[in-house]
Amino acid sequence: MATIIIGTLVFGLFAGVLIYMIRQKKKNGSACACSGCSGCSDSSNCHK
Hints:
Mean pLDDT: 73
Shape: rod-shaped
Low-confidence stretches: none
Number of strands: 0
Order of helices and strands: H
Number of domains: 1
Largest sheet: none
Strand content: under 5%
Oligomer: single chain
Distance between the termini: 53 Å
Helix content: 40-55%
């Protein structure tokens, strides 16, 4: 029973990290998707 719970937690964590990385990649792309670049993690990557 414990292995199922641990497996689910690990899978959930992995999926969450993967989704986060994909979102960061989209944000830091050639053109920033954020309005006014305020939502970007690195504003220097934004094209004004």
